[in-house]
Amino acid sequence: MGCQLTFQIQVPTAELLSRIQKLAQEYEGQFQGDEKSGRVALHFILGSIEGDYSIEGDKLYLNITRKPFLVGCETISTMITENVPVLA
Fold first, then answer.
1. Residue-wise DSSP of 28-50
2. Extended strands (E) in the chain
3. Would you kindly state where each structural domain of the chain is located, as residue ranges?
4. Interacting residues of 60 by C-beta distance below 8 A, sequence separation 6+
5. Mean pLDDT for the chain?
6. Chain-centre distance of CA 79, in angstroms?
7. Cα–Cα distance for residue pair 25/35, rounded to 1 Å
8. pLDDT digits (tens, 9 = 90+) for 10-44
């Protein structure tokens, strides 16, 4: 079962995407996309997550399509905001 997460973007979109791309590199993941939509995969210590994103205005919508069974959506949201502090 996936998660539907929404984040407030606090920097220009290009800077956000740069930070997400860097995060994907740090966590041996993948990032494909642009300022409108794309796909991201990250490998955290608790397991791998994958999902699609879209950006509308100052909102990032993240649809987690794959995650560890025992890791809840709130935990994933917290991991993301701790690693991408320009999201709230």
1. T-EEEE-SSEEEEEEEETTEEEE
2. 3-8, 30-33, 37-44, 47-56, 59-66
3. 3-83
4. 6, 7, 8, 9, 16, 53, 54, 87
5. 91
6. 9
7. 19
8. 999 999 999 989 988 988 899 999 999 999 998 87
Q: What is the pTM of this model?
A: 0.88
- Overall fold of domain 3-83: TATA-Binding Protein (3.30.310)
16 Cβ contact partners less than 8 Å away, ≥ 6 residues apart: 9, 55, 60, 84, 86, 87
Number of neighbours of residue 8 by Cβ within 10 angstroms: 11
What is the C-alpha separation between 29 and 10, in angstroms, rounded?
23
